[in-house]
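Example protein was shown:

_____
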Amino acid sequence: MAAADSPDDGEHLRAGIQSVEVGFELLNALSRAPGALMLRDLAAAAGMSAAKAHRYLVSFQRMGLVMQDPVSTRYDLGPAALRLGLASLSRIDAVKLARERVPALLLETGHTLAIAVWGNQGPTMVHWAEAPQTVPVTLRLGDVMPLLTSATGRCFATFMGTEGRDAERIAPMIRDELARLKKLPNHAMPLLDVPQTTQAVQDILNETRQHGLARVVHSLVPGVGGFCAPVFDAQGRLSLGLVVLGSVATLDTQWKGAPAAALLRCARQLSADLGHLSPA
């Protein structure tokens, strides 16, 4: 018969094992470094003495978490660390992870939130959460967003369409959409910030890249503004777009306003959770 848990077992669990937490700083430093590190540099990055770091590294080498080049004597992550990382990445569901963050972000921003992924026909809404006491926005799950007049589309066009197959796929879509916008009569476009030229499109993409997220104000629906922040995976590919939108009467549409800052902060944390290392 198993012995009953002692009253202080919970306290022991909360306390943890300090030496494990200290040693992890070495692994964390290696994961953030651009390459292998000398002992002194690795110890400094982990905030400990070289002698102390060496003792941990000896154990980590035995476990395969760290390896040392016999010629340069530099340390790097080992095969066991790679296996752990790959196993973790294979089990991550980016949309599920993003959905778990929506309630807290909804409270922080006070505005409607959405999640979009790239579908067969373009950026597609796959999750929707309306904030109470906000003006309803007539968008539905499964809606495919335009690339040039929605924050979601601009986000995907900017951060997904820079190179390779994605660029080859998005470029003609942008050309076709721009051609349709040019054909609309002026009275049918009571909107603002709607590009009419290739240069105007490029200016929008450059502005989006500069700020790290996309914005529209009166561009898709009159009176509505929104932002879309990119979430990247471990390979640096755009995984999804995190969207906030609402009436311009209540949504702060400034680039550095509170909604944009909260959205960008959440997107960057999600990217980090998916294994993306942002450039220094």
